[in-house]
Specification:
about 300 residues, alpha+beta, 5-stranded mixed β-sheet, two-stranded antiparallel ribbon, about 60% helix, about 15% strand, elongated, binds adenosine-5'-diphosphate
Length: about 300
C-alpha cells in the first residue's frame, strides 16, 4: 500500500504539465501525507491505549501485592500467635476447672481440699508465668519493651543467676561448673533482661538433663565480644530442630513427655540477645546441648 501511494505521488508530480500544476500537486501530496501520518498516529494511540489498559492494572496489581506482603505476613504471624496463646491458656484453665468441679462434687476431707488447692496453685503459677511471657513478647513486637542501658559486670550477673538455681541443681544432683573469663567482663544493657535470658538458658539446661548429669557455664572474651556458653549433658536436640526451637510455642518432641513448658523461653532469649546487639545459637549432636550467647563488651 505504501509503495502504491509513493508511485502514485511520483506519477502525479512527474506528469504535471505546468509549474503551477506541479505546485498544486505537491500541496495535494503534502495534505495526503499529513492525513496518512494522522491515520498512523491515531492507530498507534489506539494500540498504545489498549496495551496500557491491560499493562497498568497488571503492574499496579503486582506492586500492591508486593507492598502488602509484609502486612499479610505480620497479620498471619499475629493470628498464629493468638491461636497458640489461646491453646496454651486453655490447658491449665481446663485442669483448674476439672479439679474444682471434682472437689465440689461431694463433701471431702480437709486434706483432699488442701491437695486440690495445691494442685490448682501450681497451675495458676504456670498460667501467670505464661501470661508474663506473652506480655513480654507482645511488648517486644510493638517495640514497647523498655531496656535500661547500664554497665553490668557479667561475671557477677551470671554468678547470681546460678545462685538462684542452687536448689534445683542440688535436688537433681547435677554437677555444676562455672568457668568465668580471666578478667572482668563489662557489657552495656539491662540487668533484669540479661538475668532473664541466662536464667532461661540455665533453667533449660537443668530441666533437660537427667539426674547426676552436668551443667557448665563458661565465659570467653574474643576481641570486643564475650562468648557465654551454657553446656549440658542432657537429652540433646535433633539437628532439624536447631532453628525451630527459637520459634514461639515450639518444643522438640524429646522434651514433651519430660517437662511442662510453653516453648516461649528461647524466643524471649533471642529477643533479649538481639536487643543487646548480640546473638544466641545452639549446637547439639544429639547428646547434650550447648547454647552460645555472644554479646558486645563495653
Ligand atoms: P520450654 O522449655 O518452655 O518448652 P523453650 O523456648 O525454653 O521452651 O525451649 C524450646 C524447646 O527447646 C524446648 O521445649 C526443648 O524441646 C528445647 N530445648 C531448649 N533447651 C534445651 C536443652 N538445654 N536441652 C534439650 N532441649 C532443649
Amino acid at each position: 500500500m505504501e509503495l502504491s501511494f509513493h508511485d502514485d505521488v511520483s506519477d502525479r508530480v512527474l506528469t504535471s504539465s505546468t509549474p503551477e500544476d506541479a505546485k498544486a500537486d505537491w500541496r495535494e501530496v503534502a495534505v495526503d501525507l499529513n492525513e496518512l501520518a494522522l491515520d498512523r498516529l491515531e492507530f498507534a494511540v489506539v494500540i498504545l491505549n489498549v496495551v496500557l489498559l491491560f499493562v497498568i492494572p497488571s503492574i499496579s496489581w503486582y506492586l500492591t501485592g508486593k507492598a502488602l506482603e509484609p502486612v499479610r505476613r505480620s497479620h498471619e504471624t499475629q493470628r498464629q500467635f493468638v491461636t497458640d496463646a489461646a491453646h496454651e491458656l486453655r490447658t491449665p484453665l481446663t485442669i483448674i476447672q476439672n479439679e474444682i468441679e471434682l472437689a465440689l462434687k461431694q463433701e471431702r476431707s480437709a486434706e483432699d481440699y488442701r491437695g486440690a488447692l495445691a494442685s490448682n496453685l501450681e497451675e495458676v503459677k504456670r498460667l501467670s508465668e505464661l501470661v508474663e511471657r506473652l506480655l513480654f513478647l507482645a511488648r517486644h513486637d510493638d517495640g514497647m519493651d523498655q531496656f535500661a542501658v547500664d554497665r553490668i559486670d557479667l561475671t557477677d550477673l551470671i554468678s547470681s543467676v546460678l545462685a538462684h538455681h542452687r536448689k534445683p541443681i542440688a535436688d537433681r544432683q547435677l554437677l555444676l561448673e562455672f568457668c568465668p573469663a580471666e578478667k572482668s567482663v563489662i557489657v552495656l544493657g539491662d540487668a533484669m533482661m540479661l538475668s532473664m535470658m541466662f536464667g532461661n538458658l540455665i533453667d533449660n539446661a537443668i530441666k533437660y538433663t537427667d539426674d547426676f548429669g552436668g551443667v557448665t557455664v563458661s565465659m570467653k572474651i574474643c576481641e570486643a565480644k564475650v562468648l557465654i556458653e551454657v553446656i549440658d549433658t542432657g537429652i540433646g536436640i535433633a539437628p532439624e530442630m536447631h532453628e525451630k526451637i527459637f520459634d514461639r510455642f515450639t518444643r522438640a518432641d524429646a522434651s514433651r513427655g519430660l517437662t511442662k513448658g510453653h516453648g516461649l523461653g528461647l524466643s524471649i532469649c533471642q529477643a533479649i540477645a538481639k536487643s543487646h546487639h548480640g546473638t544466641v545459637s545452639v549446637k547439639s549432636n544429639g547428646q547434650g546441648s550447648t547454647f552460645a550467647v555472644v554479646l558486645p563488651t563495653a
